[in-house]
Amino acid sequence: MGDLGEVTIIVGDPGRVALISENWEEKRTVVDSREFVVVVGRFEGHAVSICSTGIGSGSTEIAVTELIENGAKKIIRCGGCGAWQEGIKPGDMILNNGMARSQGMLGAYVPEQFPAVADPFLLTAIHQEMIQSGMTVHTGIGLTSETYYLGQGRSSMIGTPLKPAADFMQNWIDRGILNCEMETAVLYLLGSLYQVPVANSLVVHVSRHNEKWTNDEDYRRIHRQAANAVLRAALN
Fold it and tell me: Is the pLDDT of residue 24 over 80?
């Protein structure tokens, strides 16, 4: 795979690899296969790397495991999420210190009672860097779902759609869940098991409370700003 940097960012969308690494120096692509794109380079004088994972737990498990096999030292997921609590706006940042998860996720590794948590020191450093950069940041527990539709309280448009339970989202909201996405718990569990510091940095692209979305230009800009803050925090 090539030499990974002092910090490795993971993103879901392969297209976001080019966005985040746009201004890196000495960058080169070392993997480009299916949903997995890996670029290494230098950021402010430090060796860094970025890898796309695709969507969901299965491909993320592959990516994170092989990154750790190849010497990843710190891994931070820079992605997007939907916010479930009122008062969290599109374009805000969420840093999850822990994740609830759908049943069965990574059951081959740990029982369902095993917590999926971030490295507290790494998450705190990222939080401080983002606050100093003027970003609006929320911290707390999120939900990692293995599905995009029913498992996130959505129904499809297929004929007579299957619908989630009427109180599905509210049950999680009442328990303080800030947001929902599809990958972080995988990173947190594998980081704990293999003793690699991990954290996340999620741009809110939609508020599920009112279905208000971030526009594409702002979403890209905030992702780049957030990734730079993540790298500075993790490297310092």
Answer: yes
